[in-house]
Amino acid sequence: MNIQRKYSLPNCTLLLEGLSDASRTAHYQEMRPELSILVNAECYLSGLQQPLSGGREFFESLVRTVNAYAQEFLSNVPNPLLKHQDSEIVQLYKIDSNRHKLIVSSEVPAQSAEYSASGATIPVEFELNTVQLFDLVEAVDQFFADSQTLPEVTLALQSVSRNDAGANQALIKQAVPASLGLSSLAAAAFVFSLIPAPQPKTPELQSQQETNPATSNPTSSASANPVAATPIDVANNTATPTPAPTPTTTAVASPTASDIEALIKTVPEITDPSQLRALNRQVYNQVNPAWTNRNTLENDAVYRVGVATDGAILGYKAVNQSSNGEISKLPLPNLLYNPATRPPITNEAIAQFRVVFRKSGALEVSPWRGYAKTPQVIGEKIQDPTQLKDLNQKLYDQVRANWGGTPTFSSDLKYRVAVNKDGKIADYEPLNRGAFDFYRETPLPKMFNDIYGSNVAAPNQKEALAHYQVIFKPSGKLEIQPWQGYK
After folding, report:
1. For 171-178, what is the mean pLDDT?
2. How would you classify the pairing of strands 466-472 and 425-430?
3. What distance in Å separates the CA atoms of residue 146 and residue 15, rounded to the nearest whole number?
4. pLDDT beyond 70 at 197
5. Which of 253, 249, 259 is nearest to 304 (CA)?
6. What gap in Å lies between CA 75 and CA 192, rounded to an integer?
7. What is the pLDDT of residues 253-268, one digit of tens each?
8. Fewest 10 Å CB contacts: which of 90, 379, 422, 448?
9. Cα 351–355–357 angle (5° rounding)?
10. Would the pTM count as exceeding 0.70?
11. CA–CA gap between residue 258 and residue 304 (Å, rounded)
12. Residue 343 binned pLDDT confidence (cut-offs 50, 70, 90)
């Protein structure tokens, strides 16, 4: 099973991709399998066009060097771990108080390296400012804090002798903010020579934690598709939050469907039609505006997507090889939930959806297993006949006043529109293909945006609403009638 982990800061993103060791996985750990075999590591830095990338040797050199350099930079005490960094794949040198030279050589692949006329690899050199450095340090700290990713890679700390540290009282006055993470704490330990270094969890402890038993045999190669950060292999292809730079990609074999089936058996699945309908809209509203390069697909791309009860996209899986090869052109990796802004995923129920990116540019989202029965609108409803009639007229007047111009569509555009007791639009939903394709020709997005600041905002479910079917006719006629339910 292909697993991806992502650790993101504004100026740095670490992306790790690998596999689970099937011999070590016996249980689920918060639905997150352990990434124990690293296949590819990528480091995206703001200002650097291509990611720094490589295998395990590159990644271990990166975290060793970044930790050691951060300790030395923050403490102004020479770090013995940097004395022999000339032999490292990744090296960091101080230029001045706000500039740092990052050098990466040897294992860097073609897309990240330059070559001399003789064909020899030229190390990549990149100048970091201190803000970029601190973001890189924090990304490394996020990795060390993730017990389900390479648990045997531990934080390298080494005490400094009093001769090296000296008796410079000025160092003691340096304030080291706790918010800078584990590397900063280690640097403070170097300064004071009294603070015990943080003890990372040992691999033995890690092995006692629950991991994913539904892991496929780690014989297929992993792709290099960056995904949105943190990690939950709910849909068995990836997991993790925050946008990442557009990467290069390598096609890989799609995981087997049995992996998702095994996962579904361990957590509740959302099957209620009304809840699925609401989540279906949330998935569409996340994916549709994020899919910007719609003319690049060679084939239709189809994915099985796992979604939490709050609409967070937990993971996805390509249903065939061609779809797997198209993922780098699509927004799904960058839409995965961010654990920094959302509570951890435990054993909460998940819903499954079929998301189709048509090469024509159309997006289709539907429940993976369809609707067991006709869904209903969720939430309290206004049902008084007199009030419904008055609100019907208010809605008609608002829409009619905002709809002008000559329609270019040739068939009816149908929407469900809800208003509150004051007649203010609170929700709207396309009901047919034309309504999706020609929504810009209706006033509904602008009316909704004027109120909520976004035309894809979550519907207002905090008060009773009156629901109507609104039909825009190609002739320019407008029809509004009380909602009779989904057909």
Report:
1. 39
2. unpaired
3. 13
4. no
5. 259
6. 9
7. 333 333 455 556 667 8
8. 422
9. 165
10. no
11. 13
12. low
Alpha-carbon distance 394 to 28, whole Å? 53
Strand-pair partners of 351: 307
Nearest-10 crossing angle of helices 444-452, 385-402: 100
Contact 293, 375 (CB under 8 A): no
Residue in 279, 49, 33 with CA at minimum distance from that of residue 150: 33
CB-count burial class (<10 Å; 0-12, 13-18, 19+) for 206: buried
Positive or negative, the CA dihedral 161, 164, 167, 169 is negative
- Which phi and psi angles does 59 have, rounded to 5°? -65, -45
User: Contact 312/343 with Cβ under 8 angstroms?
Assistant: no
CB 269 within 8 A of CB 372: no
**What span, in angstroms and rounded, lies between the C-alpha atoms of 433 and 438?**
9
* Per-residue pLDDT, 440: 87
Could you give the CA distance from residue 487 to residue 484 in angstroms, rounded to a whole number?
Answer: 8
Residue 414 · residue 469 · CB < 8 Å = yes
